[in-house]
Design brief:
The chain is mostly beta strands. The protein has strands spanning 5-13, 16-25, 28-33, 36-45, 48-57, 72-82, 85-92, 95-108.
């Protein structure tokens, strides 16, 4: 299923709720939120979505929803529910205790 496009993302966990934006094209992912930007790679196999994302903190005054200072890497996995909706989980690479639920909504094709 094609996921290329411009998406909004909503994330929620025990200690965090927030929103951001993501652009996906040619297995590359770019996005951000207040104080952070994302760069990564993704793959889609049927309706299964997986990504590895570097999360970079460009404004140290903005806290991470995970309570982690600075930069980190995140693994994302989920389901492509239809052409404009995905749901899944994001977790800090190597630290599954840091995880949040995510919902992506496609806002525009590229």
């Amino acid at each position: 299923m094609a996921v290329e496009g411009f998406w909004t993302v909503r994330f929620e966990g025990p200690h965090v709720a927030g929103t951001g934006v993501v652009m996906m094209k040619a297995n590359k992912l770019y996005g951000g939120e207040s104080g952070f930007y994302y760069i990564g790679n993704y793959e889609v196999d049927g309706n299964i979505f997986k990504a590895r994302v570097a999360v970079k903190n460009f404004d140290p005054k903005m806290p991470s929803g995970f309570g982690i200072k600075g930069d980190y890497e995140m693994d994302v996995s989920g389901m492509v529910n239809d052409a404009s909706n995905m749901t899944g989980t994001a977790m800090i690479t190597g630290a599954p205790q840091y995880n949040i639920g995510i919902r992506l909504t496609k806002r525009a094709d590229l």
